[in-house]
Amino acid sequence: MKKLRANMDRYFNKLDEHWRALPVGKQRQYTLRFFVGYLLLTAGVIGKVYYDTSSNDMAIEHIENPVLKKSESPA
What is the pLDDT of residues 12-58, one digit of tens each? Predict the structure, then answer.
């Protein structure tokens, strides 16, 4: 478990070094693109949920007991 944690720490430190090595303008551009992607994904999911729930036309009827319901005789 300690080895896994050490590997993860090294990996994240390396990613952080690469991120800090990027120019500030490039960091802003990446951040803006990820935010816009997240915003589009969120809007898509909200739109899909709204679309799925808006066409919910369930017919509400009286429930009939199948035991008391007259049907064809099995004989």
Answer: 999 999 999 999 999 999 999 999 999 999 999 999 999 888 876 77
pLDDT tens-digit profile of 58-73?
777 888 887 877 665 5
The amino acid sitting at 38 is Y
Is residue 72, in this structure, part of any structural domain at all? no
Residue 10 lies in a domain: yes
Range of the domain at 6: 2-43
| 64 located within any domain | no
Residue 69 in domain: no
Q: Please, which residues have CB within 8 angstroms of residue 30's CB and are 6 or more apart in sequence?
A: 22
pTM across the whole model: 0.58
CA neighbours closer than 13 Å in the CB half-sphere of residue 7: 4
